[in-house]
Amino acid sequence: MKIFFYNTLTKTKEEFKPLKGNEVRIYTCGPTVYKDASIGNMKSYIFMDTLRRTLKYNGYTLKHAMNITDVGHLVSDGDDGEDKMIKSAKEENKTPLEIAEFYTQKFFEDFDRLNIDTPEIICKATDHIKEMEEFVQKLIDNGYAYETSSAIYFDVSKLDEYGILSGIDLRNQKAGARVEVDKEKRNPYDFALWIKAPENHIMKWESPWGLCYPGWHIECSTMSNKYLGEVFDIHTGGIDLVPTHHENEIAQSKGCTGKIPAKFWMHCEFLLINGGKMSKSLGNVYLVKDIIDKGYDPLAFKMMCFTSHYRNKLNFTWDAIASSQNALNRLRDGYKRHSEGNEKIDENIIEEYKTKFQEAINDDLNMPVAMSVVWDVVKNPNKSKQLANLLLDFDKVLGVDIQKENEQKNLNLPDEINNLLEQRKQARENKDWSLSDKIRDELKEKGYIVKDTKEGTTVERI
Ligand code: AMP
Ligand code: ZN
Q1: Which of 25, 65, 315, 446 could pair with 121 as two cysteines, CB 3.0-4.6 Å apart?
Q2: Residue at which a domain ends, from 343, 372, 398
Q3: β-strands 232-238, 212-214: how paired?
């Protein structure tokens, strides 16, 4: 079956075919490991997971590299400000290496919790300093880079088409529109490839241009080239990377090899919190751990991501996660009920469901449509093992562990709370509303809020 993906580079949905045989080569911009990854970051990696699983479902093998940024990403996302790793190391009184190891491990714990299929190759920027230096040298040799007293810059005026991904037209950019930190820069959009380290800078390496550290963008061009070749199939990341990081990656690769490094560029839209931005100052930077601490299965967040297309913004609220938990419970219950059934379903009907599901995922990973097929199967009144097996097959793409038992104790609640919830359930079944309300108040006193929605009862910690 054909696959179509939206390509940010051409701004159209195009048919996808691997460049080489049956193998799909993918590069994903990984985390900057200076702090905990937020659920916003995880939305982007859930998209990456769905992409991997969809390609595998279609029978392809994958060679997928994801970097770990442990040097060079400055606080401004541009060429000024402190390195995020060093800033965090100072704040936490640790070395940058300790910070990187600590947050890398936590990052992959979240991958496990969210059942995210990990790329085949994980590569760290600091393990590739020599290769990056060679890449920079090549750009100088090819006439695309120049040295100032503080850095080696990429000269964007040397490319006929800088801005191809984001649509920036350099001719319309007023000189001085950006506040320059380095007066020796030739053009406002020139960006640092290699930065000369000030004396007290912690992370720095010997190089032909003195003690330096790499810029943020060079690592991805270098590592994608090393592991996947000059041109590979798909490059992914969050939407914020389009006008900066990815535009500059394209510039670097064009300067080095003359080629745009990936055929397809796919980007995930942002997660919003209560309709707005996630920010430290608003105190609304939520982690996967926060979802678990409130008593939810982290995979409820994955279910929530499937309610919208990856190219749309998604709004996170605690009410939305409560309904996604209910949806996850219904899915697991539905699977269980089908697996206990013995009715015979016509194979054509099974094939029809399967085709509809595959058409949806192959249509630029359209998960809301794919989920509507999943619900049709769950709601099929004929309880059948064939349908249970079909749901298991779909779970290869969803990765939400549909075989997991649905019990309140799975929500990591203390026994005392589980007992009260059970008593309240009984009271409600007996239509003893006053007892049910009394138990709800008792739970509240103990720090748990109970909500009755049309899909069932949810509980979360206050
Ligand atoms: P970082 O660790 O900041 O380099 O970001 C890792 C990935 O998460 C990048 O692909 C970002 O574009 C993406 N990202 C950051 N914030 C969000 C958000 N709120 N929603 C979706 N993706 C995000
Ligand atoms: Zn990158």
Answers
A1: 65
A2: 398
A3: unpaired
| Same domain (yes/no): 181, 260 | yes
The reply to whether 403 falls in a domain is no
| Residue 248 CA to ligand 2 centre (angstroms) | 10
Question: Would the CB of 255 count as within 6 Å of ligand 1?
Answer: no
Which ligand 1 atom is nearest residue 270's CA? Answer: 20
291 and 261 co-located in one domain:
no
Residue with CA at minimum distance from ligand 1 atom 21: 270
pLDDT value at residue 371 = 98
409 part of a folded domain:
no
User: Considering its fold, how many domains does the chain have in total?
Assistant: 3
Distance, CA of 45 to CA of 214 (rounded, Å): 25
For ligand 1, whether the C-beta of 44 sits within 6 Å is yes
Q: Which amino acid is at 342?
A: N
Distance 372 CA to ligand 1 centre (A): 28
At residue 205, the 3 state secondary structure works out as strand
Using the atom order of ligand 1, give the atom closest to the CA of residue 238: 12
Residues 290 and 168 in one domain: no
Nearest CA to ligand 1 atom 9: 238
Find tokens 């193998």 and name the residue: 23
Using the mean position of ligand 1's atoms as its centre, give its distance from the Cα of residue 280 in Å. 14
Which stretches within 118-272 are classed as H helix?
129-141, 218-228, 247-257
- Helix, strand, or coil here: 319? helix
CB-CB contact of 213 with 223 (8 Å): no
Three-state secondary-structure class, residue 133? helix
The answer, yes or no, to whether any atom of ligand 1 lies below 6 A from the CB of 236, is no
Say if ligand 1 is within 6 A of residue 43 CB.
Answer: yes
Which stretches in the chain have pLDDT values below 50? 175-176, 409-410
Q: Measured between alpha carbons, how far is 305 from 46 in angstroms, rounded to an integer?
A: 8
DSSP 3-state percent helix, strand, coil across the chain (nearest 5): 45, 20, 35
214 in a structural domain: yes
Parent domain of 297: 277-398
Q: What is residue 42's predicted lDDT score, i.e. its pLDDT? A: 97
pLDDT tens for residues 300-310?
A: 999 999 999 99
Neighbours of 13 (CB within 10 A): 12
Taking the centre of ligand 2 as the mean of its atom positions, its distance from the CA of residue 3, in whole angstroms, is: 25
> Which bound ligand lies closest to the C-alpha atom of 73?
1
**Cα 10 to middle of ligand 1, angstroms:** 22
- What is d(CA 303, CA 322) in angstroms, rounded to the nearest whole number? 11
Residue 410 lies in a domain: no
Res 460: pLDDT:
77
